[in-house]
Design brief:
The chain is mainly β and 174 residues long. The protein has two helices and 13 strands. 5% of the residues lie in helices and 44% in strands. The longest helix is centred in the middle third of the chain and has 5 residues. It is elongated, with a radius of gyration of 20 Å. One of its GO terms (cellular component) is ribosome.
C-alpha cells in the first residue's frame, strides 16, 4: 500500500470454526462494502497486509477467510486487529457529502458570525448525525459543548472545506 493516511473501516472479531474463518465487524455504511477494499492492512501490534479469499453473511454478522490463514490458531492471532485502508481508496463524494474525518476539526460559526467552537466528534443517531462542538474556552454564554444536528439546508447552511469552516443556523446561547 502507498504511504497515505490510514482509515479504520472495521475490526477482526472472534475466530469462527476450525478452518481459519474470522468474524468481521464492519464500520462502513453498508457492512458488506468492507469487502470491496483489498488488500486489508491489519493493524495490531504490527501491521500485516492480507487479502480476503472468501466471505459470507452469518446470522446477523459477517465472516471471512483471509489469504494464508488456514487454521484456528493462526486466525486467533488476528482477533482484535483493526482493518485499515488508505484514504486514497475511499470513493469520491458529491459536493454536498462529507466524510466524518473531513468535518472533525472544522470551526463552526453561526449565521450571525458567532464562533461556536470546533467539531470534536460526530455522533450517529437514529434520525441524523450530530456535531459535537467543543466551545471556545472564553465562550460568551458559558458553554463547554454544543450538540448541533448535521442537517444540511436546515441547520447546516454551508461547509467550506478549504477554509475548514461550517456555517450553521443555530442560536449562540443554545
Amino acid at each position: 500500500m502507498q504511504q497515505s493516511e490510514q482509515i479504520v473501516v472495521g475490526r477482526i472479531g472472534a475466530v469462527y470454526g476450525v478452518k481459519g474463518w474470522l468474524k468481521v465487524q464492519s464500520f462502513t455504511d453498508d457492512p458488506e462494502s468492507i469487502f470491496e477494499y483489498s488488500p486489508w492492512l491489519l493493524s495490531q501490534k504490527t501491521e500485516r497486509e492480507l487479502k480476503v479469499v472468501e466471505w459470507r453473511r452469518h446470522n446477523n454478522g459477517l465472516i471471512a477467510r483471509l489469504e494464508g490463514i488456514s487454521d484456528r490458531d493462526e486466525a486467533a492471532r488476528l482477533t482484535g486487529a483493526d482493518i485499515c485502508i488508505t484514504a486514497d481508496e475511499l470513493p469520491a463524494l458529491a459536493d454536498d457529502e462529507f466524510y466524518w474525518r473531513d468535518l472533525i476539526g472544522m470551526r463552526v460559526v453561526n449565521t450571525n458570525g458567532y464562533d461556536m467552537g470546533v467539531v470534536e466528534q460526530i455522533m450517529p443517531t437514529a434520525s441524523n448525525d450530530v456535531l459535537v462542538v467543543k466551545a471556545n474556552s472564553n465562550d460568551g454564554f458559558g458553554k463547554s459543548e454544543r450538540l448541533i444536528p448535521f442537517i444540511q439546508s436546515e441547520y447546516v447552511t454551508a461547509v467550506d472545506k478549504e477554509a475548514k469552516q461550517i456555517q450553521v443556523e443555530w442560536p449562540s446561547d443554545f
